[in-house]
Amino acid sequence: MIQVIDEIQGYNPERVKMKTERIHGRLLYIFEMAKKEGILPLEAANRYAESRIREIQKLKRLYVLK
After folding, report:
1. Residue 61: what pLDDT?
2. Could you tell me the CA-to-CA distances from 13 to 3, 16, 19, 20 in Å, in that order?
3. Is the distance from CB of 25 to CB of 12 less than 8 angstroms?
4. Where are the domains of the chain?
5. Which of 1, 9, 18, 48 has the least CB density, counted as fewest CB within 10 Å?
6. Phi/psi zone of residue 19: left (φ > 0), alpha (ψ -120 to 50 degrees), beta?
7. For the chain (length 66 residues), average pLDDT per consecutive 10?
8. Residue 66 CB coordination number (10 Å)
9. Taking a C-beta distance cutoff of 8 angstroms, is the pair 51, 41 a contact?
């Protein structure tokens, strides 16, 4: 799936590899968070996503001209 989506931008095997490695790292982080906090991986993934959304919103506020 990642490779197919990447082909829209012009296939680049290194870029695909980088994207899949990033996903792998995020999954390992989520599973470790779930284990440490004694929660389901789904809950850990939701917390991770919510955290990322908050961080991106902060960045947008810094770079959006008013």
Report:
1. 78
2. 8, 5, 10, 11
3. no
4. 2-63
5. 1
6. alpha
7. 81 89 96 98 98 90 67
8. 3
9. no
3-state secondary structure of 58: helix
- Name residue, tokens 């906090």: 37
The two three-digit tokens of residue 8, written as one number: 């829209």
Reduce the DSSP state of residue 62 to 3 states and report it.
helix
Q: What is d(CA 66, CA 53) in angstroms, rounded to the nearest whole number?
A: 21
Report residue 31 as tokens.
Answer: 């599973």
Task: Give the model's pLDDT for residue 66.
Answer: 53
